[in-house]
Every structure is written in structure tokens, then in C-alpha cells.
Amino acid sequence: MSIEALVTLRSSEAPNVGRDRIRLLEAVAREGSISAGARHIGITYKAAWDGLDAMANLFGQPLIEARAGGKAGGGAHLTPTGLRVIAAFHRMEAEMARVVRALEPELSGTGVSPLNLMSGFLMRTSARNALRGTVTAITSDALMAEIAVQVTATTTIHALVTNGSVRDLGLVEGRQVVLLIKAPFVIIAPGTTPPLVSMRNCIPGTVRRCETTSVSAEIVLDIGDDRTLAATISARSAEALDLTECAEACALFDAAHVIIAID
């Protein structure tokens, strides 16, 4: 298997900068203008400027110097900072790929791939639930697609995304993904037989923990294969449902509330 590391640069004040925007910088440098660089990588002139502005915000200084048209025509070239950013970005990708390849022998036979390990270390999200799984089916109409993701031997979670997201994320059957579900979106129903509701996902399990304050409660449901789903509900609801440890319950949530992420 060919291993490739993908680096994303980010700050709290600016959008992410990844390989696509580095490709834009390289295209502008090669083509000699922003418009030609944008055409070369298949984006609009406005999108190119947005990307360049985002990079300037991230690094605190411009990476491109543009000149207005005239007798000699307009154009653009990279600043010294722009050249150094490109070189540093590719160096980081190469170093990360080297580290990931070096980890492969140590992880052999564990069921954990180097890419799983790296994404587990690097991923930060506000979603309480992050579950890795494998895409098993994709059903789409003119606008949307329902993605079935198997997260345990007996549990499949469904996500509803746009067809554009399917293309952008490269979603196909067999691809590993990470599902993100915020705990307040998860409803808990006692017992193994769920009520008749319109929720696409109904995941049976047993209560592993129920931590309650005066206002709220977090219910952690064991769904098998050492995987869990957490729900945030009111303390009054937790008391009414009598969700004691090892009690059987179901986690219900809409497919539109499931976010799909890729490594």
C-alpha cells in the first residue's frame, strides 16, 4: 500500500490551508498570473483570491505579489515568503510520510494502521462521539446521498450528505471514515424495542455510565465491540427513564446529524 501524508495548516483566526491551496500557489508561480493559475487547477478567479487571502491571513503576510495590467500586461509572482511556505509544506508532508512508514512494522498484526494512529493523535473535534467505520453502501438521488457505515460487527450508522460531499470526500464502498455525532443530537429510549419515530438511526446497547448533575446528564451506551455512544439529556429525563448501569437502551439520532470525516 502506498502511504501518503496530507498536511493541513490552521489557526484560530484563519481558514485551513492544505494541499489544494499550496497547488494554487504553485500554479500562480508557474503560470505567472492569478487568473491563469486558477484556470490551471480548475477554480474560479474569486475562489483563487479567497484562497490567497486565507493564506495571507494565516501567515501574516502576502505570499503573492500581483501587478496591474498595462502595456506589459498584468501578472503575479511569489514573494520570498510564498516560496518558503511551499518548500516547508512539502518538507512536512515528506517527513510525516517517513514517520508513518516507519510505524508500519510496529503496528503489524494489531489491526491498527499507521493512518488510523496518526488521525487519532491529530484529530480534534467538539463532537462527543467519533466512531471509525467502513462505508458499506451509498444510495443517492439528484441532490443527497445516504451513506451506510459499519462501525461494529452488528452496528451500521447512516449519514445523509450532499452528492457534492460524496465527490469531495471520495466516498466509495470499502473506504474507512470517521463519523462525528454531537451528544445533544442523540436521544435515549429505554429497552431494546425503539419507539416509532422518524429517526434513521436506532442503535441498541446497554448503559455503561450515567453521570448526572442538577441540570443535565451524560448517558454512555455500550454498542458492542468496545464502542460507545454518548448522549446529553436533562437530569429530569435521566431520572424518569431510570437509566441505571447495564440497563438496555437505544440511541436514536437523525442521519442528517451525522458528519463524515476522512483521514
From TrEMBL:
PROSITE patterns attached to this UniProt entry: MOP
Transmembrane annotation, as ranges: none
Keywords: Molybdenum, Repeat, Transport
Record carries keyword Transport: yes
Keyword Transport among record annotations: yes
InterPro entries: LysR_HTH_N, Mo/tungstate-bd_C_term_dom, ModE, ModE-bd_N, Molybdate_resp_trans_reg, Mop_domain, Transp-assoc_OB_typ1, WH-like_DNA-bd_sf
Superkingdom, natural source: Bacteria
All copies of domain Mop, residue ranges: 124-190, 196-262
Membership in a protein family: Belongs to the ModE family.
Protein name (database record): TOBE domain-containing protein
Natural source organism: Terrihabitans rhizophilus
